[in-house]
Amino acid sequence: MTTFPPLDITPMWSRINEELLELLDLVPDDKIDWSPKPEMWNFRGILLHICIGRHGLMQVIVQDGKQSPDIFREAQTRDGLKEQLRVSWQRMEPFLSDPELLSREYEVPYQDQRPRVSGHWLAFGQLEHDVHHRADLVHYLGLLGVEHPEPDTLARRLREGLT
């Protein structure tokens, strides 16, 4: 198996978290519980899912020793959702900035298996999860006709100048 050097994804991911907050600001008040189809998650559900995934990673797999907040109770308002996005991101930052924690192997409870993966693998998987759901939010806003900035893509960064 080919091995690759670790990547520093934390600065980009921090910007993605800020974008999630900006996208939430664009959701009309009467559409926070809207989805294109009843069987699809609504805006609130997607954002709750992102927070729950981050806290779950840190509590269950990384085992950072912290309790997760009652996200369902604390994120029922727009401000509560924003706070939970911030809190869940702040919980992950120490893990993402510690080379030792990222290099460690973690056991992942998955069905009847217990595969072991690196912290880098976990971090990238969670980043992929956030980006995937950011796309959901962007598409939902588009379906509602809500103008929004282009997500923080490589093309956008090159146009604006890399920082």
| Domain module count | 1
Order of helices and strands: HHHHHEEHH
**Approximately what portion of the residues adopt beta-strand conformation?**
under 5%
User: What's the CATH class, please?
Assistant: Mainly Alpha
Shape: globular
In CATH, the topology is named Four Helix Bundle (Hemerythrin (Met), subunit A)
The rounded Rg comes to 17 Å
Question: What do these coordinates show?
Answer:
This protein is mainly α and 163 residues long. The protein has one domain (12-160): Four Helix Bundle (Hemerythrin (Met), subunit A), CATH 1.20.120.450. The protein is 60% helix and 4% strand. The protein is built from seven helices and two strands, in the order αααααββαα. Strands 1-2 form a two-stranded antiparallel ribbon. It is globular and about 45 Å long. It starts with 9 loop residues before the first helix and ends with a helix.
